[in-house]
Amino acid sequence: MRIVLVGPPGAGKGTQAAFLAKNLSIPHISTGDLFRANISQGTDLGKQAKAYMDAGDLVPDEVTIGMAKDRMEQPDAVNGFLLDGFPRNVSQAQALDEMLQAAGMKLDAVLDLEVEEDEVVKRIAGRRICRLDSSHVFHVTYAAPKAEGVCDTCGGELYQRDDDSEATVRNRLEVYHTQTEPIIDYYKAQGLLVTIPALGEVADVTKRAMDALKK
C-alpha cells in the first residue's frame, strides 16, 4: 500500500506511522529522517538543505520533493510506503501525484489523524523533559512524575522545552492550518481521505486506522 499520513502536531503521527508501517510491512518515510540522512551522508540534496537551514530559511519544496523521490525509488519501497510529513502543502501533493503517475503508481489512502486543537495543546504543553537524560519524558496529566518537577528515574530536574510552550504550540498549529490543512481537501476531492479519530490509547488508534485501510 502507498499511504500518506496527515494530522496536526501532537496528533501522534510518528507513533502511528511506526506501528502502521510494521503492520503493513512497508517502510515508514518521514521528512525528518530524510533530512537527517541526506545531511549526514553529504548528498547534493543534503548540502542544499543544510545551506538553507543554516541560514535560518525554509528548505524549498523542490529539495524536499527530490529527497522524497530518491527515497521512494529505493528497493524496499517497491511494494509500498507510508509517508509522514510529506507532502506538507498542496504543491508538494501535486508533485507527489506526478511522480507516482510517471512511475505507473497511485496512492491508496490518505489517513487524517483528527484531534481537537485544545487536546493538541494539552498533549504538547504538558510534556516535561529530564535535564539529565532527555529520553526520560513525563506529562503533567498523562504520565505525571511521583514528585512534581523531579524525574522518577534519575532524580533530574524536569523542565518544559521552549518548543512545547503553549504559545509556540498554537503558532505551530496556525502554520499547520495555513500550509498543510489544505491538502486534506485536495485528497478528499480525489476520494482518498480517511479520517481517523486520534484520541485514546495508541493501540486503539492503530486498530481504527488498520480497520479503515481494510475497507
Structural class: alpha/beta
- The level of helicity is 40-55%
Rg computed from alpha carbons, rounded to a whole number of angstroms: 18 Å
Mean pLDDT: 93
Q: Which strand order spans the largest sheet, edge to edge or round the barrel?
A: 2-3-1-4-8
Contiguous helical run count = 9
Shape: globular
The biggest beta sheet reads: 5 strands, parallel
Strand content: 5-15%
Q: How many E strands?
A: 8
Instruction: Please write the string of helix (H) and strand (E) elements.
Output: EHEHHHEHEHEEEHHEH
List low-confidence stretches: none
Termini separation (Å)? 13 Å
Overall description:
The protein is an alpha/beta fold and 215 residues long. Helix content is 48%, strand content 15%. The strands form 2 sheets. It has a 5-stranded parallel β-sheet, with helices on both faces. Strands 6-5-7 form a 3-stranded antiparallel β-sheet. The longest helix is centred in the last third of the chain and has 15 residues, at 166-180. The mean pLDDT is 93.
For the structure shown, list the relevant keywords.
single chain; 215 residues; alpha/beta; five-stranded parallel β-sheet; three-stranded antiparallel β-sheet; 9 helices; 8 strands; 15% strand
Topology:
Elements: E1 2-6, H1 13-24, E2 28-30, H2 31-41, H3 44-54, H4 61-72, E3 81-84, H5 90-102, E4 109-114, H6 117-125, E5 127-130, E6 137-139, E7 158-159, H7 166-180, H8 182-189, E8 193-197, H9 202-214
Parallel strand pairs: 1-3, 1-4, 2-3, 4-8
Antiparallel strand pairs: 5-6, 5-7
Helix pairs in contact: 1-9, 2-3, 2-4, 3-4, 4-5, 6-7
